[in-house]
Amino acid sequence: MVILLAILVLSFLIFVHELGHFMVAKMVGIQVDEFSIGFGPKLLGYQKKEDSTMYSLRVLPLGGYVKMAGMDPEEESHVDSFNTKPLKHRFAVISAGSVMNFLVAILLFVVTFSFIGIPAASNSNMIGDLLPGSPAAVVGLKAGDKIISIDNEPTNNWEDVAGGIRAAGEQEIKLVVERQQEKHTFNVTPRYDSQYEVYQIGIKQLVLWQKQGFYQAITLGLTQAFEFAKLVLQGLVQLISGKVSANDVAGPVGITVAIGEAAEGGLGYLFIFTAVLGINLALINLLPIPALDGSKLIFLMIEGLRGRPVAPEKENFVNLIGFALLMVLFILITYNDIARIITGG
Q1: Of 279, 293, 196, 299, which Cα lies nearest the Cα of 234?
Q2: pTM higher than 0.85, yes or no?
Q3: CB within 8 Å of 165: residues ≥ 6 apart
Q4: For a Cys-Cys bond, which of 136, 157, 158, 254 suits 250, CB 3.0-4.6 Å?
Q5: CA pair distance 330, 246, nearest whole angstrom
């Protein structure tokens, strides 16, 4: 189920990206031969009689492309070819994929904030969720239990609950909880969390979703999109400068796990994670890396500066080398993802 959900999310983001290229190409009069989601052998295909575009779904869903006339240097050019259009039109077509991803991310934020809400931790003494295998889960505590006392001391809010657990240290504590209007007693021993340097029993605060007005949701959606974009750029700078290890970068396997975890939190978390993933896709595609949109934009800029395009054989060679390096990076990141899952990292 998690794998299917991950495929759906990634296919949606790819579809949105390629739709951006497709729409702008059509707007400026470029002939589009194929709009494809996925790579490899074709599973499904559809083409209207009056339309030159083939719409296809292929075997490998982690990718996609828009095949435009004139993108292949060896192809014969005509008036509707990509390479015969003005520079500004070609620049708009190439950048449209990332722009569309960013716009859809904003839309996802707005829809989430309007119809589902913004997640906010409640100060209630009710358990929102438990960590699997935690001391609280082992003794039988459940989400929805209201902790009314710790070692006979009343707890009226989350601060009382957290304070009582931390104060106990590694000593066993007695919790009295209210569950379906009945009281139950549990004895549980806190476990030291080295990451946060506190004793915990593995319970989480209750999260409440607060719906926003439409205009407020738009404002917050724009703010969140640009804030996440800023974080992505800062992360890329830290990665390039060596402040962040490449081992911390997630690939397809890591993303699949993250999508599954987001879905467990509900539709709101899944929408927000999809929006953040879309912003990542938008910005990474604009990097000046061969075989990505950013590289194509660099070649167009060079053409604008020197007044003529880069020789097709040179551009193809750079893209070929870049694609090979991307495949090596893809394999290494996937290996790191699997290693993290196996070792619990």
Answers
A1: 279
A2: no
A3: 150, 173, 190, 199, 200, 201
A4: 254
A5: 12
CATH topology assigned to domain 121-209: Pdz3 Domain (2.30.42)
Q: Is-contact 311 317, C-beta < 8 A?
A: no
Which amino acid, one-letter code, is at 179? Answer: R
Domain residue limits, the chain: 2-116+247-343, 121-209
Reading phi first (left if > 0) and then psi (alpha if -120 to 50, else beta), residue 75 is in: beta
Which whole-number Å values give the CA distances from 125 to 7, 128, 149, 168, in the listed order? 38, 9, 10, 17
Indicate if 18 belongs to the active site: yes
Whole-number Å distance between alpha carbons of 120 and 7? 29
Euclidean distance between CA atoms 210 and 286, whole angstroms: 35
Contacts of 132 (CB under 8 A, 6+ apart): none
The three-state secondary structure class of 81 is coil
Cβ atoms of 92 and 29 closer than 8 Å: no
**Rounded Cα–Cα distance for residues 306 and 310 (Å):** 9
Going by C-alpha positions, the residue among 142, 149, 194, 140 that lies closest to residue 168 is 149
| Residue that the structure tokens 């604009």 belong to | 286
The Cα–Cα gap between 320 and 329 comes to: 14
Residue type for position 282: A
- Local confidence pLDDT in tens for the 345 residues of the chain: 677 788 888 889 989 999 999 999 999 999 998 999 888 888 888 888 777 888 898 887 777 889 898 877 666 777 788 888 999 999 999 999 999 999 999 999 999 999 999 988 888 899 988 888 889 898 889 989 999 999 988 999 999 998 888 888 888 999 999 998 899 999 999 988 877 778 888 899 888 888 999 999 999 999 999 998 988 888 777 766 666 665 555 555 556 666 777 777 788 889 998 998 899 889 888 988 877 888 889 888 988 888 887 777 777 677 677 667 766 665 665 555 555 545 555
What SS3 class is residue 288? coil
